[in-house]
């Protein structure tokens, strides 16, 4: 077995931008040659990978539970006797926008810390923030308290997005990365199903009083989060992060232990790794270098990331938060029964990544990303037309949404996959955070505010307009993906975007790097 981190020949004198005080971090580290990425990518699927998926991926269940719960209890919170003086529009509008604003702020705040201090430290901290804020939401006694802790709950969830997506992509073999990432992100909808059905029980006044049921709904999120926290303790730090940040011996020890475990499980030796890379280790990367890398070296990828996030953020945050309000306002569905309908469209959402995910690794990223966005947009335009004509009932509208979101969910999940794999490793968490924050701020904060206002009017044409805006943005993002999406299927992360710390054979540390947008396979 090839050693994963061995000292290279003594490095030549530092080139521009290296060495102490260069802005790349607090001093230089060693130059090492490592096979860690190739060793991780050639691993067969194993129990160890399942532990990663369960420990990290289940956070999306929490997010789905949160968003769905709030959407479904909006009508109950606005009723007299709920214990909270708040309107349905405030819940689906202001509170929803604050949750998303908190997620954007949390992604940026924790994203930078994730790249600097490691994946594991931050995905433990962010989950703790979520747990505390959710527990305090359940204790809300006034609207301002509810708004504050919705923001802080989002703050924790946003940090999770940056820490978790970067860790998952760095630990999962390249052969499975696309489908695993999509299914994990799609597991949001398992939480949505749980939140929908949970709200049906918790909002049943024959079981719980009006002022207690919705509080217990949030408390269930806390219980689930505590279970995830216990599992997550066993998830390791990313070896890719370790060897770049001067902890090569830890990366070597971790990967060697995993290899021994998998060889014992499979009963045969692992194949040799495909190759090595040489890295000039650094303890941190300056924010200015991260920004220049993303926007100067990869401008097309930056446009792609923003387009995908804006399209899916408006569609999902606008419609998800307001679906219950549509059912009660236009179809006279009781607030305690909206959860049944939402569970159906949530199931469609989860089935999309589940059945289409493998195609992102086989047919390819470009075709699948663009087609899922465009198909879902076109189907949503058709749904808007049928709704405008009055041709839909609550059941048929739900069926239409189920089909639309089957494709849209796979597309939306691929947005997270895309920005987590097309930028250099040192910028990964911050890139995820940035595109999530900007795209979600554009579509996820404005979406709920606009949509709540449109649906509150009770005018069919206003709701149709909201559908059409979401459909148009999804189609536009699909066209951008058709032009700019990166053929990342089955390729190592280092091949898709060379690490900033990578040293080419003819270069000294810091003298340059390969893999910029103009020089890589599109």
Mean pLDDT: 81
Question: Can you write the helix and strand succession as a string?
Answer: EEHHHHHHHHHHHEHHHHHHHH
Tell me about the largest β-sheet.
Answer: 3 strands, antiparallel
Sheet with most strands: strand arrangement? 1-2-3
Name the helicity range: over 70%
Coarse structural class: mainly alpha
Termini separation comes to 33 Å
Say how many strands there are.
3
The whole-angstrom Rg is 23 Å
Strand content: under 5%
The total of helices stands at 19
- The unreliable regions are 1-28, 507-515, 518-522
Anisotropy-based shape: globular
Describe the structure.
The structure is a single chain. By secondary structure, the chain is mostly helical. 70% of the residues lie in helices and 3% in strands. The two termini are 33 Å apart. Mean pLDDT is 81; it is low at 1-28, 507-515 and 518-522. The relative contact order is 0.16. The chain has helices at residues 36-41, 47-57, 59-77, 88-117, 119-137, 143-171, 177-186, 188-202, 210-232, 239-244, 248-266, 287-297, 299-331, 338-362, 365-389, 394-421, 428-456, 460-484, 493-496; strands at residues 6-7, 28-34, 277-282. Strands 1-2-3 form a 3-stranded antiparallel beta sheet, with no helix packed on it. The protein is built from 19 helices and 3 strands.
């Amino acid at each position: 077995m090839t050693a994963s981190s061995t000292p290279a020949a003594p490095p030549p004198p530092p080139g521009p931008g290296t060495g102490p005080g260069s802005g790349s971090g607090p001093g230089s580290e060693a130059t090492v040659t490592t096979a860690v990425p190739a060793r991780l990518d050639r691993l067969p699927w194993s129990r160890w990978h399942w532990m990663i998926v369960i420990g990290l991926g289940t956070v999306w269940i929490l997010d789905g539970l949160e968003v769905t719960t709030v959407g479904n209890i909006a009508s109950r919170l606005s009723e007299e006797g709920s214990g909270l003086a708040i309107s349905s529009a405030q819940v689906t509008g202001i509170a929803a926008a604050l949750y998303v604003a908190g997620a954007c702020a949390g992604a940026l705040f924790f994203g930078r810390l994730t790249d600097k201090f490691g994946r594991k430290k931050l995905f433990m901290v962010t989950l703790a923030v979520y747990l505390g804020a959710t527990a305090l939401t359940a204790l809300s006694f006034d609207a301002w308290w509810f708004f504050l802790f919705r923001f802080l709950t989002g703050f924790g969830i946003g940090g999770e997005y940056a820490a978790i997506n970067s860790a998952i992509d760095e630990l999962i073999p390249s052969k499975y990365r696309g489908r695993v990432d999509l299914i994990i992100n799609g597991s949001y909808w398992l939480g949505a199903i749980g939140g929908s059905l949970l709200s049906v029980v918790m909002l049943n006044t024959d079981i719980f009083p009006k002022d207690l049921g919705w509080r217990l709904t949030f408390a269930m999120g806390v219980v689930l989060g505590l279970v995830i926290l216990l599992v997550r303790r066993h998830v390791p730090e990313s070896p890719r992060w370790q060897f770049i940040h001067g902890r090569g011996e830890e990366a070597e020890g971790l990967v060697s232990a995993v290899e021994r475990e998998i060889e014992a499980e499979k009963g045969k030796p692992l194949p040799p790794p495909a190759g090595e890379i040489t890295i000039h280790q650094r303890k941190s990367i300056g924010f200015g270098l991260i920004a220049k890398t993303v926007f100067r070296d990869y401008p097309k990828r930056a446009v792609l990331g923003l387009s995908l996030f804006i399209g899916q953020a408006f569609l999902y945050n606008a419609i998800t938060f307001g679906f219950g309000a549509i059912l009660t306002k236009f179809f006279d569905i009781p607030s305690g029964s909206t959860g049944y309908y939402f569970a159906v469209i949530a199931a469609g959402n989860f089935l999309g990544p589940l059945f289409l995910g493998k195609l992102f690794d086989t047919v390819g990223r470009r075709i699948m990303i663009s087609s899922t966005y465009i198909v879902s947009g076109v189907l949503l335009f058709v749904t808007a037309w049928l709704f405008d004509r009055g041709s839909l009932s609550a059941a048929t509208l739900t069926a239409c949404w189920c089909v639309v979101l089957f494709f849209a969910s796979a597309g939306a999940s691929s947005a997270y996959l895309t920005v987590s794999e097309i930028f250099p490793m040192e910028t990964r968490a911050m890139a995820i955070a940035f595109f999530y924050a900007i795209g979600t701020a554009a579509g996820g904060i404005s979406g709920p505010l606009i949509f709540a206002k449109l649906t509150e009017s009770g005018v069919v044409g206003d709701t149709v307009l909201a559908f059409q805006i979401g459909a148009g943005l999804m189609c536009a993002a699909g066209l951008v993906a058709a032009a700019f999406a990166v053929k990342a299927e089955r390729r190592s992360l280092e091949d898709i975007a060379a690490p900033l710390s990578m040293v080419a054979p003819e270069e000294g540390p810091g003298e340059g790097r390969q893999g910029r947008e103009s020089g890589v396979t599109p």
